[in-house]
Amino acid sequence: MSSSTEWPLWEVFVRSRRGLSHTHAGSLHAPDAELALRNARDLYTRRSEGVSIWVVPSTAVTASSPDEKDSFFEPAADKPYRHPTFYEIPDGVKHL
Question: Can you give the pTM of this predicted structure?
């Protein structure tokens, strides 16, 4: 198949139970969102593994590059107050 006649690539996210987050299950090709959703159901939840499915065009996903890890995440490194180890828990506090 030439690239002009290939179906678009879709990323599939499945939520296994209520209250949990959707996790990336894989990818598939489909001509539209409805068929992508049906194919994802058949491919990734054959044994009732999920309660919800999201399909997202791969072209809509934007990700950071692992090669730019240091410069991308560096601004958070100078904010130790964002980490629980920065604070001391007073005696007598049982649940925080």
Answer: 0.67
